[in-house]
Design goal:
The structure holds 2 protein chains of 2 kinds.
Chain A: H1 8-37, H2 45-63, H3 66-90, H4 95-118, E1 129-131, H5 141-145, E2 147-149, H6 150-168, H7 170-180, H8 182-187, H9 192-218, H10 230-240, H11 245-267, H12 274-295
Antiparallel strand pairs in A: 1-2
Helix pairs in contact in A: 1-6, 1-9, 1-10, 1-11, 2-3, 2-4, 2-9, 2-10, 3-4, 3-9, 6-7, 7-9, 10-11, 10-12, 11-12
Chain B: H1 2-23, E1 38-43, H2 53-68, E2 73-78, H3 84-96, E3 101-105, H4 110-116, E4 124-128, E5 139-144, H5 146-160, E6 165-170, H6 175-191, E7 196-201, H7 208-220, E8 225-228, H8 234-243, E9 246-250, E10 262-268, H9 271-282, E11 290-293, E12 300-304, H10 314-327
Parallel strand pairs in B: 1-2, 1-3, 3-4, 4-5, 5-11, 6-7, 6-8, 8-9, 9-10
Antiparallel strand pairs in B: 10-12
Helix pairs in contact in B: 2-9, 5-6, 5-10, 7-8
Classes of the chains: A mainly alpha, B alpha/beta.
């Protein structure tokens, strides 16, 4: 039975499941990373994901227009991000507590809207599988990587883009400066407030898209509380990835593939209790977090509100 | 004065009761319901449109109202009470508001009911799915023999699989889901012990994405018939539909969600038990009984999708097995 795990079907299965499961984490974690690199911890990712996934689903259900759904999702995410920014940057509320508040708000609001506007669980036609010409015909590799939907491709494209913005642009430099030493950045004429509003809003948009990736691309359905804690895993993955896009990519893929692996272990009947199998990705996360936190160090100004002196 | 008033009221009530009896004799099977509407409050863990466990009790209330009349039954509900403390607060508040019957529809609410019920001795509490009444005189317990429906679904699944591989997407290995899945596996094996039934538990009742991946994994491992329990299975049904694999449902009729692939759903009709509870209340019994919804008392029904094209004989075999379970000639191991 153990050697069944090494067959081609299983390996292809694990990698392609892993890619799909990792997609929402990539959006949400990279959004969260921008916020944290500028000094804002947002624990409301889960709520932003839920509201984003509901809005995208609702627009597709009513209009069938995927582009419109994405616009609505982006708008809702931006609003949630701006609100989080207002509470933590302008009003200087404790970031952790404010984030929990936004999580509860997003969850409650998506529940309420679902019940009032829809009420019945229904299928929709979301983003179809988009086979990349030529590349999609390569055996094995084509099947795994080049026969996914648009939001999956964009999620993986986001990783190098985020790396470039963070490390090779003036904006990225400002974000990092604000997160490490806001006083110094401020004295050099960088607006700490404006940068933080920008990153938190961007984080809201990306979390919202993470939710939409579930409801209108991967699953094509909405159910209350359907993100099931993924928003919190996304926050953990930022630490896991030492606040770097490639680290987050590694973490998201590792977590998702171990999750896919444990499903295969159960399907192939390898005698491990299901309770232990489902714990595998979480145990792995804890172990890696413990090891990585020793070497990596987060942004110095993380969770600290900034108030201009004088 | 006070004494006179009390005596007068007793006489008046007696006259009213007598006239009610003579004017409209209650049918033998119908619970006795007075002129005042009965007020029932329900607390459910998820949303009452979840196509699963919570919806089953809501559907039962609608059926009960339809049967006895909207003027006889009034009901309210608190849904999405997955936080047990919130549920306990709702249960207590309904009791304080004087609801006649309070249904705590979730096995996680047991300790809350146990704690609250003694403070309201005139209120009927019922909770499920369980068999434990805590020995209290105003707590009923109810459960579903979902292994029976699971067995029937399993028999049909065994007759439909061509690859001889069947996949099961379960939530957490406990309670109603485990009962259903164990029954399903036994049903498959009763037809053909060589069929490979692969069971996965994903460790969550709400992770739709993981349920979808579990279904995808079963399908790539060769399964052509799937089943599963709890509200997150909508992710799995979606993948079954994409792949054209048969799906067997439980807890609610899932045909409307994927009419091309849902073969049959085990549906609970809790109203059968609610009617019993109402009848007992009219007789002055407020609790202490363990109820079970099963194929025999109609608390459980197998709804076969009328439009699904399946080979001749499968539905007939299912009906045969249902009869066998009812008359006792088939026992589920």
């Amino acid at each position: 039975m153990i050697k069944d795990l090494l067959s081609a079907t299983v390996l292809i299965g694990i990698i392609s499941s892993g890619i799909r499961l990792a997609t929402p984490y990539l959006y949400a974690s990279i959004g969260e990373m921008f916020g944290q690199r500028s000094g804002v911890l947002n624990l409301g990712v889960e709520g932003q994901m839920l509201l984003g996934s509901f809005v995208a689903y609702y627009v597709v259900l009513k209009t069938g227009n995927l582009g419109l759904a994405m616009l609505a999702t982006i708008a809702v995410g931006a609003l949630m991000g701006l609100a989080m920014g207002f509470v933590t940057i302008k009003l200087q509320a404790t970031q952790g507590i404010a984030g929990i508040g936004f999580y509860l708000f997003g969850m409650g609001m998506s529940n309420l809207l679902f019940q009032k506007l829809i009420g019945v669980v229904e299928n929709i036609n979301g983003f179809p599988t988009l086979k990349i010409p030529l590349l999609g015909d390569i055996p094995v590799i084509g099947e795994i990587f080049f026969r996914q939907n648009l939001l999956v491709y964009l999620a993986f494209l986001l990783v190098p883009v985020a790396w470039f913005v963070l490390n090779k642009t003036t904006l990225g430099l400002k974000i990092r400066a604000v997160g490490e030493n806001p006083e110094a950045a401020d004295s050099l004429g960088v607006s700490v407030t404006r940068i933080r509003y920008f990153t938190v809003t961007l984080g809201g948009i990306l979390s919202s898209i993470a939710g939409a990736a579930l409801s209108i691309a991967l699953l094509n359905v909405f159910q209350q509380n359907m993100t099931a804690g993924q928003g919190f895993i996304a926050v953990a993955l930022v630490y896991f990835g030492s606040w770097k896009p490639n680290g987050i990519l590694t973490g998201a893929l590792l977590f998702s593939m171990v999750n896919a692996l444990q499903l295969w272990i159960q399907v192939l009947g390898i005698p491990i209790a299901s309770e232990l199998a489902v714990m595998m990705p979480y145990i792995l996360t804890i172990v890696v977090l413990t090891l990585s936190l020793k070497k990596g160090k987060g942004p110095s100004a993380l969770t600290k509100a900034f108030e201009r002196e004088g | 004065m006070n004494k006179l008033f009390r005596m007068l009221s007793i006489v008046l009530i007696a006259i009213l009761a007598l006239s009610a009896c003579t004017a409209a004799p209650a049918q033998p099977e119908e619970p006795v319901v007075g002129d005042e509407p009965l007020r029932i409050a329900i607390v459910t863990p998820s949303n009452i449109n979840d196509l699963a466990f919570s919806q089953s009790i809501s559907d039962a209330m609608i059926a009960l109202q339809g049967e006895l009349g909207k003027d006889k039954i009034e009901y309210v509900y608190s849904e999405n009470m997955f936080v047990v403390d919130d549920a306990a607060a709702a249960i207590r508040s309904y009791a304080q508001q004087g609801y006649d019957i309070i249904l705590a529809h979730g096995s996680q609410y047991g300790s809350s009911v146990q704690e609250i019920a003694p403070d309201f001795p005139d209120t009927v509490f019922a909770w499920g799915t369980t068999v434990d009444t805590f020995g209290q005189s105003n707590i009923h317990a109810y459960e579903a023999a979902s292994d029976q429906g699971g067995f029937v679904n399993g028999v049909m699944a065994a007759l439909l699989t061509k690859t001889k591989v069947i996949g099961v997407v379960g939530p957490i290995e406990t309670g109603d889901a485990k009962l259903y899945i164990d029954g399903f596996v036994a049903g498959v094996k009763s037809v053909d012990p060589t069929i490979d039934v692969r069971v996965t538990y994903i460790g969550s009742f709400s992770d739709v994405a993981l349920a979808a991946e579990a279904a995808t994994t079963h399908l790539s491992a060769g399964a052509d018939v799937l089943t599963g329990s709890a509200q997150m299975v909508i992710g799995a049904i979606g993948k079954a539909q994409e792949a054209g694999a048969y799906w067997f449902g439980t807890q609610a009729d899932q045909t409307s969600f994927a009419p091309d692939v849902v073969v049959a759903s085990q549906v609970y009709h809790w109203e059968v038990i609610l009617k019993e509870i109402l009848k007992m209340k009219a007789e002055g019994v407020l609790g202490g009984v363990e109820f079970a919804a099963n194929l025999e008392n109609g608390g459980q029904v197998i709804k076969i999708n009328p439009d699904i094209p399946i080979p001749e004989g499968v539905k007939e075999k299912a009906n045969e097995v249902i009869q066998g379970i009812i008359d006792g000639s088939i026992t589920i191991p």
